[in-house]
Amino acid sequence: MRVAPDVTLGRDVQVFPFVNLYGCVVGDESKIGTFVEIQKGASIGARCKISSHTFVCEGVTIESNVFVGHGVTFINDRMPRATTDEGVPKTDEDWSCLKTLVMEGASIGSGSTILGGVTIGAGALIGAGSVVTKDVPPNTVVVGNPAQVVRKLV
User: Fold this and answer.
1) Best label site of 75, 129, 140, 144, fewest CB within 10 Å?
2) Do the beta carbons of residue 21 and residue 6 sit within 8 Å?
3) Counting Cβ atoms within 10 Å, is residue 28 exposed (0-12), middle (13-18) or buried (19+)?
4) pTM: predicted TM-score of the whole model, two decimal places
5) CATH class of residue range 1-77+96-154
6) Any idea where the domains of the chain sit in the sequence?
């Protein structure tokens, strides 16, 4: 387990083996599963469950009471390149981080991919294996690739 000194952990956070946390914030009573990486600038709210094998990149904010299933991947760059047009390796100055927001009480099914720049509304449910390419309204179920609304939750 690697929890860097610049990580802010809330009260009673559970961190399981083989995680990599650096430069992030994790709220009270959250659980971080095995083989999870949470990068600098990411924020996890209180009472969240981040299941094993999940990748939370820079620019992601997850509010409180959110469930993230196994093997979920967040993406913060829609046009990734290793080098500039001149063939020089890219640095932090050569890209802009797309922000992603997962609002209060949302649930993201296992194996889903969340593209940068989207907001997942409060109470929304993302079906397993979905690819979220646009905003998800609150209290809505979306599934598929790309994720489409299938119904509203009561």
Assistant:
1) 144
2) no
3) middle
4) 0.95
5) mainly beta
6) 1-77+96-154
